[in-house]
Backbone:
């Protein structure tokens, strides 16, 4: 896997001579990415729900579980869609090869986002775990529905968001 980072040309040249093994990018890259992102989403929603009244927090928790499941599934859907697009574009240029190989190679393309998540999520977690959120009442929500938006945008400092964005952009460039 280190060769994928240090010498991708050699990694893929050698890999194309072997049998297709979707299991390796699945278990080493895409599944850990899905678990990492889903866990982060759970932590974020769990922290936010502490600021809301119990009645609203229950809905947030239900929404969080739905979001976590859909986030988990979405990574695999994106993997499939990107592979379909890559295979379609390459066939437009009269390339040959089977879809399973394209699917396998595309899975390795999720390594930079996984590395980005491994770097940025612990840093974000430090901010989230230390954040002191005010308790919001139902009356406050009724009077000012934007209070929830303000709470969410205040949870993570803009410098952290921009830093995370920069790290992920550098890793995928």
Residues:
């Amino acid at each position: 896997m280190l060769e994928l980072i240090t010498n991708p040309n050699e990694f893929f040249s050698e890999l194309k001579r072997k049998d297709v093994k979707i299991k390796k990018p699945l278990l080493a890259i895409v599944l850990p990415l899905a678990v990492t992102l889903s866990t982060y989403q759970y932590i974020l929603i769990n922290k936010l729900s502490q600021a809301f009244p119990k009645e609203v927090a229950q809905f947030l928790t239900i929404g969080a579980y739905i979001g976590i499941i859909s986030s988990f599934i979405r990574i695999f859907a994106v993997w499939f869609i990107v592979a379909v697009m890559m295979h379609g574009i390459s066939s437009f240029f009269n390339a040959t090869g089977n879809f399973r190989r394209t699917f396998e190679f595309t899975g390795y393309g999720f390594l930079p986002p996984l590395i980005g998540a491994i770097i940025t999520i612990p840093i974000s977690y430090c901010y989230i775990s230390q954040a002191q959120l005010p308790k919001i009442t139902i009356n406050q929500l009724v009077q000012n529905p934007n209070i929830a938006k303000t709470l969410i945008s205040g949870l993570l400092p803009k410098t952290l968001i921009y830093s995370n964005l920069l790290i992920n952009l550098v890793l995928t460039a």
Q: What stands out?
A: The chain has one domain: 2-78+105-172. Residues 2-78+105-172 form one domain.
